[in-house]
Amino acid sequence: MEVLERLVGDIALPKMVRVRQKFADDHIADVAGAVLQGLRKPEIAGRVTPGMSIAIAVGSRGLADLPILVAATVKGLKEAGAEPFIVPAMGSHGGATAEGQALLLNGLGVTEEAVGAPIRSSMETVSLGKLPNGLPVLMDRHAMEADGIVVLNRVKPHTSFSAPIESGLAKMITIGLGKQEGAASCHAMGFGYMADNVVDMARIKLDKCRILFGIATVENSYDRICRVEVVPAESILDEEPALLKEAKQRLPRIMFNPLDVLVVDRMGKEFSGTGMDPNITGRASTSLVQGSLTTARMVVLDLTAKGGGNATGIGLADVTTRKLFNKIDLVATYANHITSTVLSGAKIPMIMETERLAIMAAVRTCNALDMSKLRMVRIPNTLHIGEIQISESLLGEAKANPAVEILGEPEAMTFDAAGELAEFAAAH
To answer: Exposure winner among 39, 222, 311, 399, fewest CB in 10 A?
Structure first.
């Protein structure tokens, strides 16, 4: 450590300024009410009859108000006389085990007590045949045994491919409800074929399974739900592209580009499928997603606990910390990458003993010629980038941008005796 301290110790870190990036913030105040209103539409309510057992597919993503969405769905189905239960629909996440997937739901606030319905978690699947290319189509056994299936998910851009349908209801049907084996099947040919395989497999499941409808949300730039749509099963593939288009228009961005250094305080599955959203960082595991941000060095400091040690996407960073590395569950992380067949995100970046050294190493190696003009941004994570910190050299750009509000004066980055960076001050 002394050698590394000597190698980077002469680096003077820039003063940082808190700023607010301003995006459209219209959102739904009563999320539960919006769900119940959608469930009571005649074309939806008529699909549910008293006594029906209904599997509600819930994934591992950190959807805004997820427990509220699930609880409202349970309430609406019970009002119609149905007997709902929760099925984890998350492909290979949770270490590809039934117990791990139930724990992930628990960590997201989806417990039997909170939502009012039991959780039935299994990795067992039922075969529904094969695509013309030979890939098997698989479906969660508990969902197949139910009288009906409801799929709940946020519609958003995918982190590894671009298409009219990316991450949303169709992907939840194909990959989430396919469990590990079904997810592996869909990924088997690589992300270049994902757009077709997701839709083709979903079409077979919509035809052969008792899927009643999907509940889709769209979130604004501040991670708030701005749209809830309850979509009949037969309309999912037709309606999802418009929802994705809206979601892409709502996607936030870092308004300073290019960057010498991007500091990400925390990564995690609740923020993005790849821990750090490539649509924000500009760093993707495949060439099929082209982020707009250019960053010479990216450093990630910590891993949240909600993902159960899943550090999928860690390889997209250049530098990380010993603290984060020690939290990685390699089984959970590798299960995700083996299933997706994309291994670059599982590579381990340079590991530094403290957050201070990690940031200094990123600055030291970013090849900026004039450190007084260093372009550095610090974000809490890739889901919450309303309030961020920028280096003093970016103040001119911030003042010239009407979508940026300056919240404070330039301040030195402060670290405790253990080299840990002071907590991010943004409120989100």
So the answer is: 399
